[in-house]
Amino acid sequence: MSVVASRPENPAVPYTIPQDAATCKEFAVAVQPVTSRTSSVSSYRTNYTTSTAPTTGYTPSSPASSYRQFDSVGSIPKSIESVQRRIPQEVYDVILNNLEVLHKAPHQTGCTTCFHRDLHALSLTCRSWERAVRGRLYTQIHIVGNDSPAQLKRYRLKRGSRLKLLRRTLRERNMLANLVRELRVPQMDLLFTTTKQSAQWQEYRDLVASVVMVCPNLERLLGLSIPYHHEFDRLTHALSTRKRLKEHTWVLGEAVEATELSPRDDSCPGSLGPSQMFEFLDYHVSWGNLETLMLYGLNGNGALEPSIFLRMFDLLPSLRNLCISSFNKDAFADSTLLCLPPLESLRLENLPGVTDAGIAQYAMRPESQSLKSFILVEQNIESLLVISKLLASLRQLERFKFVQSDKCPTLEEEGMVFQPILASASLKYLHWDVACPDPGTALTQLDSLPFQQPPKQSDTPNFHLAQSILAAGFPWLETLRAPNDCQPPGALQAVCRPITKGQALLRPDRYSLPRSSHGSVSIRPLALPAGNNLTSSRIRAQTFIDMAIKDTESGMPVLIEDYSDKYVPDNALLGNFEEEPEPEIDDYGIWEASERYKHDPPRVG
């Protein structure tokens, strides 16, 4: 097939197909004459006269032309539009997915704002691209960073100018408002305060509420956590009307003084009055699709009671993920834990009313068998057998996080220990951050070298976990994260696979090394940093690796032979390398061979 494009002044360019004309009619394109509106791309033709205008012949095998072969601007969109209409949406999705990876991948320098800016640029190219990126632009709206000072001055606001522009756009185009599923807004400074909220804060909160009201299908509001003191506010009311909401966070503070006293005011001081209780529960009536709920008691005083928790859970039939944190023993106790509905993930944090017996009983209930993720943070569990029963009872558990920095769980001294004490047939991810029995002297004296086999006997949680892993207690375990692997030192690190290239440190970690080491890992002092932060954990891990390398006496001799010529080193014929002293690099004749290549280079046959 051959196409010839010329540049006459008046007639249109004919497009002929010599063969298979009947089957290729849809590809015929008639180029229209130049109109008054010319493109900047075709303006080059003014440099030529009519007699010297170039004529280009194009075939599929010829190289691409360096300039456009069309004079009319109106003909270009028509030809492109006919092709783009036949491109399926899946092709656009692949392009947009790769563009998102370039911006949001872990080792990339882009951000969400840059990604949305590129999407907006694509939407301005043509209608096909506008339809393709419309969902990506408005399904997840993330407003990150500070507002422009020029916009703030224009709208006479101290913050929230972008929210005001977004509200105007969504009000004018209901089709775009129906696409919004997730909205992230900037956080307000000094949010968690028990004092009376300022007028500036109330104005910003009402602005966010007005944006929520124009998004009928909103599922998540991120970036803004509002303390709720059991009094009316517009944002909480706006969220309660979103029937498709899937995620919500309650930051519950002390309730304002109620006109009616609670029936349990004597046994549970600070409880809600009847009207406050009814208003709080009424917010959950429309949340039939809510899947994730986070409850946080501000300053440990959530003003709730067990009956309110139970009624609230009954109003949420789709609840799958639950987080409960910082409630006193009168609000949330073992009795409330045993009445939880079936969940997929559960997080319990800083709940004094939840005891070891309550956790063990909950693990035996049928409602807990659907758990795939369980997190215990600062629950002060005393017995390690509670964790053993928990892991053995939850048959579908895949992720388990145990963080406890104040109290070390132990075993009975007179009891008999059979390994594995800790075992799970389904666990894939384990975060183990448990306090040491003697944290003051855990790293000052290394009684046993790291990775020593067999390890020294120790009655610590880290030692029992390491022995349980060696005894095949976790057959499907893929990831172990132990930031407090101190007693015994490196016990959990020893049961894991070696780190790639033996480097546990990141580049920024070298700035945290002691000054006496001068940034060098090999000459730093043996005084290891304590604590469970990740930087200290990586420094300790790298120290254990270096100590194990120095203490290892066994090795394997490595011989590098060069077959580029017929030269063979004399000591390459020796069979016993262990009895010979360590050779220098010139003993293998490498420098001698390189000097010979300068005068007599090898021939290439």
UniProtKB/TrEMBL annotation:
Regions of compositional bias (Acidic residues) in chain numbering: 577-589
Region of interest: Disordered: 40-64, 577-605
Composition bias type Basic and acidic residues, residue spans: 593-605
Protein name: F-box domain-containing protein
Organism from which the protein derives: Penicillium cosmopolitanum
